[in-house]
Amino acid sequence: MIRTPLRPLARILQARAAGENPDAIERENIRLRHEEMRDRSRDQAEGRLLMLGLFFFCAFSAVGARMGLIAVAQPSEPQLASNTGPTIPTDRADIVDRDGRILATNLATYSLYAQPQDMIDPIHVAKALVKIFPDLDQARLVKDFTGDRTFVWIKRTLSPEEMQEVHDIGDPGLLFGPREMRLYPNGHLAAHILGGATFGREGVDSAEIVGVAGIEKQYDGWLRDPANAGRPLRLTIDLRAQAAMREVLDAGMHLMNAKGAAAVLMEAKTGRIVAMTSLPDFDPNNRPVYNPKVKPGDSPLFNRAVQGLYELGSVFKIFDVGEALNLGLVTPKTMIDTKPFRIGGFLIHDFHNYGSKLSVADVIRESSNIGAARIAMMFGGDKQKPFLQSLGLLDPAPVELTAAAGVQPIYPKKWTDVSTTTIAYGHGISVSPLMLATGYASLVNGGMRVYPTLIETAHPRIGPRVVSEKTSAELRSLLRYVVTSGTAEYGRVKGYDVGGKTGTADKPDPQGGYYHDKVISTFASIFPASDPKYVLVTMLDEPTDTSGPVPRRTAGYTAVPVGGEIIRRVAPLLGLRPTIEPADQNAITLARN
User: How many distinct structural domains can be found in the chain?
Assistant: First the structure.
């Protein structure tokens, strides 16, 4: 930098020549130099302040942008830096009923594990844990905690109360891992439909939930698929109807001293299953372990409504009558020979003597084996077998349960004349209650085949036609006739015109032949009979009504009252308004004031 002299010689000489004071020149130059220095310092300070301001602006902008990104980001489970294994998927969709009520969901919980090397007093910890969890083996815990192990699983899931009790032990070697578990808030309700779930791959901070039975297993991939964006799986069942059905069926099973029971409630026109129960059942929150020593049919895991194959007896008579009506071979008034006869060495007879002839309507009302066999012989096995197959009675039920696919109905490989006559009244063929409900629905809904389903869809599979609309209407009248004046009179429900058919079948003896004191009693019902909205099949396994002077096992005294009570309970829940029957005009007395 070139500095200007404070006393330039040229100006000093000029000032002296002009008689001016040379010191004024020096003072002026000092003032100008100070002003220049002040201006330069101000410029430097302003530059520094500008740079500092830009720095703070950029810093706060970066912090604000980061906070914004965190605010809009999806939350994720934190991962341990040391966890280099594959990620365990934990999201699983809910399962809901037709109205969105929760049937299965996930619950945040914690697992309990131990790192023995960090324990202060392993012996005390083992004793304290056994007090909290009596199912644990104290000797095994002591061995694990005092040995060479560095990691020990103790409990897969904990309740909040259990977690607090473990906290109170206060040992640093006990640790908790966050995870989710499958929760069924309704307990036993729809247990066989939902099936249950368990843990698959497990880590310290997460566990994979996989289905083991029922809908949980059938739709395991769908429920775990993140592409569904958390949408629940909607079923066709109505939780209210399911609860009412189970309550009545359970009470009826114990009242009738039965070893088991099953019921299926289905929409007649669509095949949607509104409720389905099998007893005894279980709590899917604590699904029992399969015991190979117990007969499958006696296990609570066994779904009698779907897996159970039974000879259901006289409920089958409506199928052969329906075929004969549809072929134009008979009308409801056609008289049928009901005298006992032999075929293939077997005597076909009735439970009671109904006389030598009955109309087709009375064959159904009185439940005549002979009449049903005679009607079946009119068209023979060549037409009987394909007709039953068209109703879904000879193939596994196409319902969305893993256990259903392998349930093949039992019927003769060679369809003889004897087979035709015995199958006409429900012997020699074994089907499930669900298959029976499907067959009844297809007959009474106007004659269109339906397919049972548990998954709610806008357009359920329907068709083809199995009987004409006229035949379907005649069958509805016959079923109504059975309830008003036949074997199902105890199935009457005030305000609802119920129709139905009873069936009492002796149980096959594994040693050969049939038991004489063990039966399967069934009531296949429809309501309202004039325009069926629903089909209900109620089945009791080995029932005995002991309310009278002698034990009674027939369906009219066992399954029918239970089925009628189920209808009385569920019909209002499903929005069916009762019909008020007009009073008897002759019983009205005119009163005047």
Answer: 3
Q: Which of 296, 306, 287 is nearest to 195 (CA)?
A: 287
Q: Rounded to the nearest 10 degrees, how much is the dihedral formed by the CA atoms of 535, 540, 544, 547?
A: -40
* Closest C-alpha to 479, from 431, 448, 524, 433: 524
Helix (H, G, I), strand (E, B) or coil at 519: strand
Are residues 83 and 160 in contact, defined by beta-carbon separation less than 8 angstroms?
no
DSSP strands (E only) in 173-269: 174-183, 196-202, 207-213, 233-234, 260-267
Rounded CA-CA distance 67/460 in Å is: 49
Q: 205 near 177, Cβ under 8 Å? A: yes
Which tokens in the block code for residue 503? Answer: 């069936």
Residues 366 and 396 in one domain: yes
Are both 211 and 284 inside the same structural domain? no
**Rounded CA gap, 456 and 443, in Å?**
23
| Burial annotation 501-526 (CB, 10 A radius, 16+ → b, else e) | bbbbbbbbeeeeeeeeebbbbbbbbb
CATH number (domain holding residue 114): 3.90.1310.10
491 or 512: which leads in pLDDT: 491
pTM for this structure?
A: 0.81
The answer on 153 and 275 residing in a single domain is: no
Residue 498 CB neighbour total at 10 angstroms: 27
Contact 347, 340 (CB under 8 A): yes
User: Model confidence over 43-75: pLDDT tens digits?
Assistant: 888 888 989 989 999 999 999 888 888 887 766
**Does 447 reside within a domain?**
yes
Which residue segment(s) compose the domain that 191 sits in? 95-234
5 in Cβ contact with 22 (< 8 Å): no
